Amino acid sequence: MSDPHGYDKMSDIEKMIGGDYAQLTNTNIRSFGWKGVTVTVKDRQSQQPKTILSDVNGIVKAGELLALMGPSGSGKSTLLNVLAHRAASLNANVKAGIYINGAAANPKTFRRISAYVEQEDALVGSLTVRETLNFAARLSLPNNVSKLERLQRIDALLTAFGLQNQANNLIGTPIRKGISGGQKRRVSVAAQLITSPKLLFLDEPTSGLDSAASFEVISFVKDIAKKHNLIVIASIHQPSTSTFAMFDKLLLLSQGGTAYSGPVAEVQPYFDACGFPIPLYMNPAEFIIDFVNTDFARDRGEVDQQLNMVHSSWHKSRLATVTQNELTDEMARNSMDTEISAENHEQSASAISIPIALIHRSFIKSYRDIIAYGIRIAMYMGLAVMMGTIWLRLSPDQANIQSFINAIFFGGAFMSFMAVAYIPAYLEDRALFMKERANGLYGPTSFLIANFVTGIPYLFLISLLFSVVAYWLSNFRPTGEAFFTWVMWLFLDLIAAESLVVLVSSIIPIFVVALAGTAFANGLWMCTGGFLVPPQTLNPFWRYVFHYIDYQSYVFQGMMVNEFGQRNFSCGQNAAGQCSCLYETDLVDQCMIRGTGILENYGYKTGETGKWVGIMIAIILGYRLLGWLVLYVRRQ
């Protein structure tokens, strides 16, 4: 069969692997039905129950495509989520009977035999089409699926969706152009079909596409559903005439109630019989959507009367009776094939392979997408040059002691502050995680492990490159041991700062708010860190509540000990030409200042570096665990 747009649809899918690719074909699920779906929520203002869906019934047979349509606010997205065993909305009260082959659907079994394609493509722009399908397979297929079979599934789907020529093209980022919108939609659907689901839910699959691209996407989905006996339910806003005609059934909603449910072929006769004929040469989908849309009604009373008539006509119609009878017949048979539950017990990839796949994907994304770390590296190098040339070649005398202290504070505090640049990249990763989590692929543990491991080499590289420039230009203590101790503290500082970003951005996943929250937290840590006000004179509230959990305070005192613990500074001379030391130490007779005297002024001691490093690691783990808890609790 050839597409009118010139695409050959999946003619080689069986031939390509010798006809053995039977996983995709549905042989067990003959019907998917729902009865009495009712969803209510509390109105925020009146606190009274508000009905989103009211007693919606329907049934789809194997090999059929159902279009779920209705004007904005009609409840179609809510119904799609209920049918797909997803949360309808926050604090929603859901009553629904959902059946597979007439038997009540088991949530675990349902998860294994169904797939959900989001309205917005959950794709990583810096991956190629083939890599996208490969990672989808690695994250979803059980370990007993061999690598050869996994590659066969990928090649079969690339052929099935006409993506062979785009297999090695990037999906596309804001900086690097990739494949077209229609091709992205096909990749999204193909990525969900990698697990060979029998039920496929599509949330607005044609959103943002022109009529040609919409037709292309739906035609591919229709062909694969017919060829492999799949059940497809798609919410769709306003399809073109040709796209609408490709669906087998339509469920039309208006104000949460059913306005029509039945074959697409009978839409026109039904509305003609109800006294609302569809004008000749007009797109039926456009007419019926406008017909049940109340948003722009001039005469509200007349429109409400018209809708009541539509709902009443539907409940009294032959098609409503047919739907009820089909559901009743299926429930009477109640013979959900045992093969469904007897299928592979290992439902997904193992707990080890998922983090490995996520880490691999994150590394590819991080080095291809310069926004993640490339721009940050350039920004930090600019900061290093600025710092090194402002505090240029400071000599070890008492006139420069305060300059050294200022440079230490700047090096630690502002490097930490600039971690806010990671917020956009993390929010992008989090959005992808939320979508993949909703599809049951993995949880917050795997996500945060991958996030943490991926960041470590880049943060170490940033710490090293920054230090190579800033440390030696500023003339800090010139020994290899001191240099690498500085690098260690800067590395821990950046890890803690990035962990803080993860926590704040997980709590408030809105860029501007996360930016403000992280900036406020960094300002707090700067104020209580011990530089602006020495710890021993700090207000007791701020000292005991914040200073001891302030990671910047440990970085500052660690760098201070590193610089002043084993370094001496020359004193100045007064007007009479005599030695004058700002700090009285045991080297005053040599007109020198021992660095430990400067540390005593801040209450710092040497020999506690190991303890401070341990506290830093504990703070980092604390941030990460709190971030995990937030992601575990939050579902949106």
UniProtKB/TrEMBL annotation:
The keyword Membrane applies. SUPFAM superfamilies: P-loop containing nucleoside triphosphate hydrolases (SSF52540). It is a multi-pass membrane protein. Residues 34-280 form the ABC transporter domain. It is found in: Membrane. The chain crosses the membrane at residues 370-392, 404-427, 448-474, 486-504, 511-533, 612-633. Keywords: ATP-binding, Membrane, Nucleotide-binding, Transmembrane, Transmembrane helix, Transport. It comes from the Eukaryota. GO terms for molecular function: ABC-type transporter activity; ATP binding; ATP hydrolysis activity. InterPro entries: AAA+_ATPase, ABC2_TM, ABC_transporter-like_ATP-bd, ABC_transporter-like_CS, ABCG_dom, P-loop_NTPase, Plant_ABCG. The keyword DNA-binding does not apply. Pfam families: ABC2_membrane (PF01061), ABC2_membrane_7 (PF19055), ABC_tran (PF00005). One of its GO terms (cellular component) is membrane. Its main location: membrane. Belongs to the ABC transporter superfamily. ABCG family. Eye pigment precursor importer (TC 3.A.1.204) subfamily. This is ABC transporter domain-containing protein.
